[in-house]
Amino acid sequence: MTTSPYGAPTAVRTAEVAARATDLTKVYGQGETQVVALDAVSVDFRRAEFTAIMGPSGSGKSTLMHCMAGLDTVSGGSARIGDTELTALNDKKLTQLRRDKIGFIFQAFNLLPTLNALENITLPMDIAGRKPDRQWLDTVVDTVGLSGRLKHRPNQLSGGQQQRVAVARALAGRPEIMFADEPTGNLDSRSGAEVLGFLRNSVRELGQTVVMVTHDPVAASYANRVVFLADGRIVDEMYEPTADAVLDRMKAFDAKGRTS
Amino acid sequence: MFRTALRNVLAHKARLLMTVLAVMLGVAFVSGTLVFTETFSNALQSSSEKGYAGIDVAVQPHVEDRDKSKPGEAPLLTQRLLDKAAKVPGAASATGSVDGHAYLAGKDGELVGQGFSRAGSNYFPGKDGKDARYPLTSGRAPQRAGEIAVDTKTAERAGFKVGDTVRMSVRGPVLNQKITGVFTTDKGQVTAGGTLTLFDTATAQKLFTKPGRFNQIDVKAAPGTSQDKLKAEVDKILPRDAEATTGKKLADDEAEMIAQGMDGVKTGLLVFAGIALFVGVFIIANTFTMLVAQRTKELALLRAVGASRRQVTRSVLVEAFVVGAVAAVAGLLAGIGIGAGMKALMPGDTMPDGPLVIPPSAIVSSLAVGILVTMLAAWLPGRRAARIPPVAAMNSVHAVATTKSLVVRNTIGALLTAAGAAVSVTAGDEAGLGVGAGLLLIGVFVLTPLLSRPLIAAAGPVLRRFGMPGKLAGQNAVRNPRRTAATAAALMIGLTLITGLTVIGGSVQKAVDKMAADSLKADYVVVMANMNDLSPDIARKLATAPGVTAVSALRESPARIDGDHEYLTGVDAASIGKLTHVDFTSGSYAALSQRQRVIVDDSTAKNHHWKADSSFEVTYEDGKKGRLTVGGIFKGNDMLKGIMVDHRTLNPHMPDLVDRQVLVKTDKGASAPAKKSLRKALGDNPAIKVQDKDDISREIAQMINMMLNILYGLLAMAVIVAVLGVVNTLAMSVFERQQEIGMLRAIGLDRGGIKRMVRLESLVISLFGGVLGIVLGVFFGWAAGEQIGTKLATYELTLPWGRMGVFLLLAALVGVLAALWPARRAARLNMLSAIKAD
């Protein structure tokens, strides 16, 4: 495959930026009930980097992720994955883009209960009708430590194991970028730490790009970079964060929010 | 609790829609049946009352004691009796009627009228020169031979005018008659699509009875004389074999007969309404099971804040009550609409006019049936709801459908199925078969969840060709075996009945064909339309027709033998052997050539303990006694049975020589030219049917087809309800799986793929139900055939592969149609709200 269905040659993979938002605006509702969820946000997500998006409830962090991942429509500005402009794609192309170029990890594990772990992992490729890359698949399965449980159904797995299956599913297709929406939200702290570890390893060792939405400073501390959002705007960012530094920054926002 | 239940109903109105529709359809069927039959019988009764308005006392021939008098009909009424009746004290006038069958040919040469009745009668002028029963609208009454009057509807239909000459036939020979008048009549047979032809009395008597003989005498009372008083007067002049009845009693009797006939129709329709409702029960139970499962948390919360188990059950039942009541009222209204619609749809001349009648029974039974069926079906889910532990309210995880073991269910199912199959196979009569069939049906239904896995897995390779959506569809279909089973079973019931009836119908037709081929050597069977009497002239004419090698008329004459009523069949001894084939166990056709010798079929012989050369005493139709000797015994079938005797022996004892049918053999066999030449010999009479074996087979096929079509139509309601069930299950499943569907969309399954997934699941469930139904239907067809086979020797199971294929396609179509809306809904689900954790 030399060209993707979106017209851009796959060689662009080597570009520095995996995803980019430019003046990205998202408005919900009309007239008096209008809510501006994203207010002309511009941000780059660099290749082989683990970025966390943080912010208080209603800051627009989930909306940013949904717009960047092609799950939601955009009101204004531009959202790109690699060289592909999402706002120019119709539903079918957008679906193919998600299938072939994006990996997803959700808070509720979102596995199909009728499929076993391995089938869940290869689901996006099965939908596309592609044969998974055996070697890569083995690497991914080893990385998330599921080798012994591939034939298990989701209801035979613990919450942590289920989320590891979800991580493996996101990784299996070698996506351009992975989006994780509160991936540890439903997990106990040990399982959560494991999953975050896998995400970090997939960036460090497998060269993947991860964007994670979270409100947990500890989770954010696994990232290379934290982007802070408030009221639909990017208000700050931090490189190589620690949990304490992130917590302090969040407290500052909270205080500001309360006084203003 | 009532308010909670009510709120629940309102909150889930969309999800309850299919349930309401299913109950509504069943109830509409019930109330529609009741309204329509009541309206119809009311209209018929009022029309029959009108018909008897001019009659105060009617005199008819009457056989007092069948066992003592002559075996035939009572003698007709005489002119003398008519004259006497007119002079009875209190009588204003007396009218004599002469009745028979008369067939009119239209301008196209075909028979006029589609009804069952093509009647002929006499115009009986009263003192004023008019017959009050038949007011003329144009022309004048028929006065001599060669003149007729026809009713307005017939004139309209055939385009007859006064002055036209029409071809017609009474018992075979063609008559050319001139229309002198057109009249109106209230007679039910005419309003129901028949024709009525009037002759002058003398001609009518010549054609239908005998000169000076009447079938009925109607006496009109003078003013001031009551019907009872007049009857008492008339009774005094009556001979022993005539009977007087008041007009009121006649009208009442007919009303009673109409009511009874309608009761039969009503019961038949209600059976099918019951089937539709029974299918509906599965849907209701399914819906409430799903609603309870989806609301586990809510119900647990109720329990946690102090509601008792009974209150929880009751709240579910109250919901069912509200749903049932809404559906019942809607169904009742729809049923009234159906009743009115049917009335409007009935061809104008087949139903007498009358108001729409809504009997109180329709209202009461509709409401009762709708509410009770719904509550009954919701009872088990209600009980299940009560068993939800309060702690379930605290569970953050969405409650998964319980995967309770199916071991108990499978065991019971297997036992029931085995018992049902065993009883069906060994049953000696219809009742046994019915019990067996019922047990088997329930058994298979109980086993459906078990059957669903292997059967749907068998479809796996096909499904996988549709890629991931196909694979997921197959897995989704077996995800909740109980739900799939209940959905498929609803469809199964309808298809079982449809297939079973088709198998029986096809096999019976094959059997009759085979019987005709085996026992009929004649090339043609000549009968009168409507199977009425045929004049012996026809056989005579056929005998001299070109190419004809053998002819025998078959005529029937009632007789009494050993106190039993039997029919003697007169045949032509010389040619019957060339025209029919039967297997003789003793003797042969040759026996018939000897006078007073008969041949009988084995079962009649057995009844009378006759053997070869047994002789017995017989009382003929004319009352004379004689002795007959058994010259041969043959294996009878439905075409040839009873006691056969040569014409020369029987004819002298038949007061009125008429034939039932004439068998004809030609030198070149059956062919279109041969048929044409026979028809020509009979004057191209449209009232006479000249049928070869193919015609007979086709006629039977038409009859069976018509019956099957009616049954298909009635069972269609059950299938429609089953479609609603599939829609319902899919819609609920889509609702329950919206998170999954959202995830699938997010990771790259496009809308088309989602639609395909839902459609294929629907197809799989429907085909599963279809296959089960067809297999069971074939089994029942076979089991019923074993019963029929004892009566119809040539019966053997014939599988209607073509139609079975059509039924399977129908099941597939059901699947595709049912998935339309749920698939659209699934494809349009908002991805974001679907993947958000709840």
Shape of chain B: globular
Mean pLDDT metric of chain A: 85
Q: How many domains make up the 3D coordinates of chain B? A: 4
Strand adjacency order, main sheet of chain A: 6-7-8-3-9-10
| Class per helix and strand makeup of chain A | alpha/beta
Give the low-pLDDT segments of chain B.
396-401
- Relative strand content of chain B: 15-25%
Number of domains of chain A: 1
Structural class of chain B: alpha+beta
- Amino- and carboxy-terminal Cα gap of chain A: 54 Å
Assign the CATH architecture of chain A.
3-Layer(aba) Sandwich
What's the oligomerization state?
heterodimer
Residue-averaged pLDDT of chain B: 85
* Radius of gyration of chain A, whole Å: 18 Å
Q: In which range does the helix fraction of chain B lie?
A: 55-70%
Largest chain-chain contact?
A: A-B, 32 and 25 residues
**CATH homologous superfamily descriptor of chain A:** P-loop containing nucleotide triphosphate hydrolases
CATH fold naming of chain A: Rossmann fold
SSE string of chain A, helix = H, strand = E?
EEEHEEHEHHHHEHEHEEH
What's the total number of strands of chain A?
Answer: 10
Question: Could you explain how this protein is built, in words?
Answer:
The complex is a heterodimer of chains A (260) and B (838). By secondary structure, chain A is α/β, with parallel strands linked by helices. Chain A has one domain (47-70, 89-259): P-loop containing nucleotide triphosphate hydrolases (Rossmann fold). Chain A contains nine helices and ten strands. In chain A, the strands form two sheets. Chain A has a six-stranded mixed sheet, with helices on both faces. In chain A, a hairpin with a 6-residue loop joins strand 1 and strand 2 (35-46). Chain A is globular and about 50 Å long. Residues 1-15 of chain A have low confidence and may be disordered. Chain B is of the alpha+beta class. Chain B has four domains: 1-53 and 252-402, no CATH class; 57-251, no CATH class; 452-520 and 695-838, no CATH class; 524-691, no CATH class. In chain B, strands 4, 5, 6, 7, 8, 9, 10 and 11 form an eight-stranded mixed sheet that branches. The longest helix of chain B has 48 residues, at 247-294. The two termini of chain B are 27 Å apart. Residues 396-401 of chain B have low confidence and may be disordered. Classes of the chains: A alpha/beta (260), B alpha+beta (838). At the A-B interface, helix 2 and helix 4 of A face helix 15, helix 23 and helix 26 of B.
